[in-house]
Amino acid sequence: MNAPLRHCFVIALLGVLAACAGVPAVARAKSGCELFVLGIAQDGGLPHFGCERPCCVEARRSGRVLYPASLGVCDRDAGKLLLIEATPRVEEQVARLHRLAGIRGRGRDPIDALLVTHAHIGHYLGLAWFGREVASTRRVPVFCSPRFAAFLRQHGPWRQLVELDQIAPQPFEPGVAFSPWPGLSVTAVPVPHRDEFSDTMAYRLTGRERTVLFVPDVDAWEREPGLLARLLDGVDVAYLDGTFYDGSELPDRNLAEIRHPLMTRTMALLAEVARARPGALRFVHLNHTNPALHDAALRRDIEARGFRIAEPGESIRL
Length: 318
Known about the structure:
The chain is of the alpha/beta class. The strands form 2 sheets. A 7-stranded mixed sheet has the order 6-5-4-3-2-1-14. It has a 7-stranded mixed sheet with strand order 7-8-9-10-11-12-13.
């Protein structure tokens, strides 16, 4: 990106993130909608199945656990709960949502609605827990793209969940706002990713006070001209794909097969925005090998640049 174009890009992003300053990391709301971070790791979490690197050996020894990337929303006025991503740790994450929201006694109706970004295991495998072998839920609305809805209806074991009325796919039109319930608006934005079974969405969630962006998976910002600016337009806080730091943490893997924008690249693109609005840009979906999860000095450097690693349990008033 040449200097004049970079300058225009940064000015545009500074404008669309103008409302970010002063958003608290944790603030308990008594009314209205509140968003919670329920997990920050890549699909396999930490410790990671099959990993014998020091990061996971030490996590097993110490008991450190990080769940896959997920958000939850509580609307205290309506008494509603929204889960974003059905990860393989859905039980623990819904329990965390209930605890953070101060809600008890939901039984077979643990949530009121679900958003899923795409059909990779860390984002939808938890739907199996909605089936009759476990929770046997009752017509939980699953908001997803038309392609994802068709995938759920046509392929087992997900088809059985639909046929037994345990989940109810609710296809939306990408780019058109919809409401899981009044007072909460969601807009899905298609993003380029490995779309073997479904397309991939980012979500913009808007309440009465703020708009939050959630984009845990994307191949590269440059794959689609103007994508990053469009995603950040009007956003107060953005949770961005932070899978890999600089790529060197996985020397034995071909990153072309598991494409994600490197954190170093994202920070270079958004450096001026982060300096102007510290804390507005937060990384999620960190791979278990990502040194930002394990190196305190590196984390301090990231924060000094105005970026943040999302914290499990942090909240934002929407």
